[in-house]
Amino acid sequence: MTELMIDAQQVCKSFGSLEVLTGIDLQVPRGEVACLIGPSGSGKSTFLRCVNHLEKVTAGRLYVDGDLIGYRERDGVLYEISEKEAARQRADIGMVFQQFNLFPHRTVLENVIEAPVHVKGTPVATAKKRALELLDQVGLAHKANAYPVQLSGGQQQRVAIARAVAMDPKLMLFDEPTSALDPELVGEVLRVMRELADDGMTMLVVTHEMGFAREVADTVVFMDGGRVVEAGTPAQVLDNPQEGRTRAFLSSLF
Ligand SMILES: Nc1ncnc2c1ncn2[C@@H]1O[C@H](COP(=O)(O)OP(=O)(O)OP(=O)(O)O)[C@@H](O)[C@H]1O
Ligand SMILES: [Mg+2]
Fold this sequence. Notes:
Number of strands: 12
Strand order of the largest sheet: 8-9-10-3-11-12
Pfam families: ABC_tran
Strand content: 25-35%
Subcellular location: Cell membrane
Number of domains: 1
Largest sheet: 6 strands, mixed
Structural class: alpha/beta
EC number: 7.4.2.1
Keywords: ATP-binding, Cell membrane, Membrane, Nucleotide-binding, Translocase, Transport
CATH topology: Rossmann fold
CATH architecture: 3-Layer(aba) Sandwich
CATH superfamily: P-loop containing nucleotide triphosphate hydrolases
GO molecular function: ATP binding; ATP hydrolysis activity; ATPase-coupled polar amino acid-transporter activity
Distance between the termini: 42 Å
Bound molecules: adenosine-5'-triphosphate, magnesium ion
């Protein structure tokens, strides 16, 4: 078992001639929470998408739980893995987006059991039992038979979290999970995320919620211009930033 759940070494990503990630070094130990902050366009979502194989890195190496993402290495040469192998790696990584992306024509319960049943082959009865437990944990057991349109944004996002956790991921990625929500609904989603962290889930969270970062993150990572400018404990990065760009970003938030 490797100690690092995410190990990014000089990860680069270009879209044509546009260099979006210019050498990301970022490590997230197993069981820890890292919050990724930074200005719009700095490459936060792109990095998350690389971790989850939705984008292919153009240089550098990205390991999740010791597995090289997207490639296989033999005698120092990298070979692209097949889409089927990529899907298998992806199945172990949960991702929650700003937009909840629930299936609109399926009930809450059907949304949560979809991937366990169709991707993992979990028997329907087993998947349903587990889904109801997870919905109970996020406070939505009573909405199991509702459709997404009948839920508030905060409720939909809690279902999206339960749906991701239903696959028993070893890592959860969150991309601004609360920024599409009305302010009064943010707290209920952050509470569910905090409980997940308390249960030992390894999490990489892009967020503007500095209170959450301060209280829940083991590490805060500040990105700008496609690279990590500064990383450290919340106290180090948020209260005593060493870099001018970090200070400028933090002061722009208030
Ligand atoms: N598929 C793509 N093709 C071309 N350019 C892209 C693509 N995806 C992202 N980019 C560019 O990469 C840069 C980084 O985008 P990214 O979405 O990663 O930023 P971000 O830090 O998540 O920003 P925000 O805070 O606004 O979400 C931007 O300049 C964006 O236009
Ligand atoms: Mg983004």
